[in-house]
Amino acid sequence: MYCQPEELEVIASSKVCQKYRKGQIIYQEGNPALGLYCVHSGKIKVIKVGGDYKEQIVHLGKEGEVLGLAALIASSSYSTSAVALDDCVVCFVPRISFLHLLSSNSQFCTSLLKVLADSLHKAEQGMVHLAYKPVRERLADALLLLLRTYQLTNQTQFSIAISRDDLAALVGTAKETTIRLLSEFKDEGIITSKGSQITILKPESLAEIAALYT
Predict the structure, then answer these.
(1) Contacts of 43 (CB under 8 A, 6+ apart)
(2) Which PROSITE patterns match (predicted)?
(3) Contacts for 68-76 with beta carbons within 8 Å, 24 or more apart?
(4) Which end of the chain is more exposed for a tag (fewer CB within 10 A), N or C?
(5) Where are the domains of the chain?
């Protein structure tokens, strides 16, 4: 997103950065959107809790991303909650500073529209996958999403620590089903695991599985 130096100074002077421990809530569904959250470091899960109190992960946040944007622009309450997947640092920009930037910088507005459009597209894709893809294919998709989101540039083999509850919430299935399918992937030599750590050995095999129902 493009900002003038003086605009960056205003943001820098008004933002507040805070450390969050794994599992801490960054913002809560139903609370009013009072500002914008920018991920400085770490991993974030954005979740929606259904009527049965089951958690669904609707987005994975990473360094450099902004969270809570739609609610802030709409001057509404958050429709989701953001929770730290691991220890992270998140910066908060107050609503008044954000709105000032929005009203004075057309290029910034255009960039925000692109961010919102991309977010909407991903949400639509996620809904289609949940509706039509079998669970095995969705698990392959979820593992590839984790790889695309969090793999480091110089990382030749991708590993991530993620609880089976969180992985099940990302796939949209039961924890027991997730564990069973992970065992199948492990037997097929696609992944290996130790505790909560999952290492992807054959991303191309996951891509083939995920593409069976497209």
Answers:
(1) 60, 61, 62, 84, 85, 86, 88, 150
(2) CNMP_BINDING_3, HTH_CRP_2
(3) 68/27, 68/33, 68/35, 68/36, 68/37, 69/36, 69/112, 69/115, 69/116, 69/119, 70/116, 70/119, 71/33, 72/33, 72/35, 72/36, 72/98, 73/102, 73/112, 73/116, 74/33, 75/33, 76/32, 76/33
(4) C
(5) 5-129, 133-211
User: Measured between alpha carbons, how far is 67 from 34 in angstroms, rounded to an integer?
Assistant: 12
- Which tens digit of pLDDT belongs to each residue from 131-144? 578 999 999 999 99
Q: Encode pLDDT of 156-177 as tens digits.
A: 899 999 999 999 999 999 999 9
Domain 5-129 homologous superfamily, CATH: Jelly Rolls (2.60.120.10)
